[in-house]
Specification:
10 helices; alpha+beta; six-stranded antiparallel β-sheet; 6 strands; about 230 residues
Length: about 230
């Protein structure tokens, strides 16, 4: 049985990761939409290649399957709202994606290169150099991706699109993006100024909202946790 405290901490970390990378209140589609008519030379891609594109403030990853098809993990709230494949197979909008992240539902789906890239520049097999790992044969990479097609749970920290492609490409599911976020958060927690800042904010909330259980508890609990963690 999972520890409730660990589950709560994990959920909090994921929400911090989400808010630190996504522009939740930006209007319209992402800036890449302006380049949605970008031409992609799919003949330069090989079955089993890892394709990566910038989406929001993260990098999105997929596995090229050949014939202008890319397998990639996409959060999508519609997966729990309807069984209509005509709706769920449509290109995932920003709102569907963000609500899918929050509700932790996703699918490993197949889209065209154009829909996958969303107008952004595509890097090919860049992870090979970044991670300095030996890649599996391309055919095996593609087969591993195809085996995982369908509904899946989603987690920004523990099961995201980067975990999916590194599992397919290298045999081990890892996410340097999530690891980097956790390291940054660790540095912030260990910084003694974080304790002071949380104490000041807690005191300000008590002064502004009054001394109640929902203001006093965080005002004491958060600085103490930061102090213990530091």
């Amino acid at each position: 049985m999972k520890n409730p405290m660990l589950q709560a901490a994990s959920l909090l970390l994921e929400k911090l990761f989400l808010f630190s990378h996504f522009k939740l209140f930006s209007s319209g589609a992402p800036s890449q939409d302006k380049a949605s008519d970008r031409f992609y030379d799919i003949n330069s891609f090989h079955r089993g290649d890892v394709l990566e594109v910038p989406r929001f403030h993260l990098t999105h990853y997929g596995i090229y399957l050949g014939d202008n098809r890319v397998a990639h993990m996409m959060p999508d709230i519609l997966l729990v709202l309807t069984a209509d494949k005509g709706l769920t197979q449509a290109v995932v909008s920003n709102k569907r994606l963000i609500l899918g992240v929050v509700s932790r539902v996703a699918s490993i789906r197949v889209d065209t290169v154009e829909d996958f890239a969303y107008g952004a520049e595509i890097l090919v097999n860049h992870l090979d150099d970044t991670l300095e790992k030996k890649a599996l044969p391309n055919q095996e990479v593609a087969e591993r991706a195809e085996e995982r097609l369908g509904f899946t749970t989603y987690s920004l920290l523990w099961n995201n699109c980067e975990h999916f492609v590194t599992y397919c490409r290298f045999g081990t599911a890892i996410s340097p993006q999530a690891d980097k976020f956790c390291e940054t958060l660790k540095i912030i927690i260990r910084d003694q100024r974080s304790i002071l800042a949380s104490a000041v904010l807690g005191l300000a909330s008590v002064v502004y909202l009054g001394l109640t259980s929902y203001t006093a508890f965080p005002a004491i609990f958060i600085p103490v946790c930061l102090w213990l963690a530091g």
